[in-house]
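Deviation from plan, reported transparently: nicotinamide-adenine-dinucleotide complex.
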Amino acid sequence: MPATQISKHSSAVEAFLNEGPQRLFIGGGWMPSGKGQTFQTLDPGAGSVLSTVFDAGSEDVDLAVQTARQAFRNSGWPQMTHNARGVYLHRLADLVEKNKTTLAEIESLDVGKPLPQATWDIENFSATLRYYTDLAVHVQYKTPIAVSKHEARVVRHPYGVCGFIFPWNFPFLLVGWGISPALAAGNTVVIKPAEDTPLSTLFLTKLVKEAGIPDGVVNVVTGLGTTAGEALATHPGLSRMSFTGSPEVGRLVAESCGRNLIPVKLELGGKGAAVIFNDIDVEKTVDVLCGAVTLNTGQVCCTATRWLVHESIYDQFVEQTRSRMAAVQIGYWNDPQTQMGPVVSQKQKDRVLGYLQKAQQQGAEAVVPGGEAEVPGKPAGFYVKPAVLAGSPDNVAAREEIFGPVPYILKFNAEEEAIELVNRSTYGLANSVWSQDLDRANRVAESLVAGNGWINAHNVFVHGVPYGGVNLSGLGGGVLGPDTLFDYLRSQSIVRPL
Ligand code: NAD
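Because the crystal trials were delayed, the predicted structure below was used instead.
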């Protein structure tokens, strides 16, 4: 691997990191946690401490929820016209764009992702915020219902306080997907970012303040999952809850919300498949799928981790994959040569390496063996090489979410066999079908049990196209679609007998 001369992060980022311990943002002000405890956030590319962050306890979370409730009642935010609220939200989108470089560097440092990928995430946040802000101006909040002998209508109102718990793989982008429809609809929010990657969300609080969004509309409580996360998920003062993360924790969050009768949205894990027929361009398809599975070092919920390849092109496909994966440049986030950064933590590195071991113990063929990677000058970073496995569909690596750059290749002959193999999964997030025969591609795509299907592409996100999972991959309506705005509005019917 060439040792490229790389630059450090900017002085603006350095100044932000030195502000630590980073404080909670409640009611428009920054404050330490009640108990004064902190935790550290690391640079996964170097294995070193980036900053310290206050660790919220249940009393801090309670304060944030109560403050957000007060803001819902008293700040005027829910009563504003959609145009007036839109001015604040577009101003926030402008500020995110103005601070794009700083935010992208913070995101790269905290997650380990290459700078161009982090930059895309930041741009996506603004695009999401603008999409829902503009949509909120144009939709109907009062819909007449045609029934005989009655005058009837449905009216839509914001709910109140919406809680959000986010994972570490796309911290800033997912905050945008989550809070944009909630804010555009007139709700107030309390955000709990992942403890591994809280920094970009904390920087956002500065921009929320600068945009002039009324105090208490946006609140951020940093902390651990089992303390701050649980305190938020179990809080009876919420009106809605949204959780993005693992199915195991999603179940706990849903249980708490069930007890409190609070509606919940769950965006969970996946084990996405790509079904590859024999009429495609092998080199091009291998290139796209290797790019997809190494994007964000494979820590992408919807990525293609099961590659079902038609038996007539199987050997050629495997050979191309071997050479394409060998060329992936692993490195630090600000090295322009880097295509794939580290995984987010030592825990995640152990998880990926552990799966490689278990898979081979169960008889998987290591088409590309993977393993630890070394990056010059960064001996303590959490780097792994891409791996490619093949073999039985019953292998643990063919069934469970690894959350690393590890596709599992399976061979198929008939279309029905491919559909059956894909639908064996307990997950149901996203799959893709690859074929020149669009009738077949559409037919197979519609037969796969999942929230999302793509044809001749993978990892496609368009504002206005709903994205979400079924089965172990989630429930509650998903994100990114126009209906998501309505998920953040409660309906009320008003009827007058004539
Ligand atoms: P995780 O479930 O461990 O943690 C997610 C969040 O939950 C973190 O903020 C964590 O602090 C918090 N948390 C942990 N325990 C909690 C508890 N008991 N109560 C309340 N909150 C708690 O997941 P992760 O490791 O951060 O993220 C990886 C998972 O997220 C993968 O399964 C991935 O597929 C999934 N994911 C899904 C989507 C999607 O859109 N469907 C997007 C990104 C990630």
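The longest strand covers residues 150-158. We consider this an acceptable substitute for the interim report.
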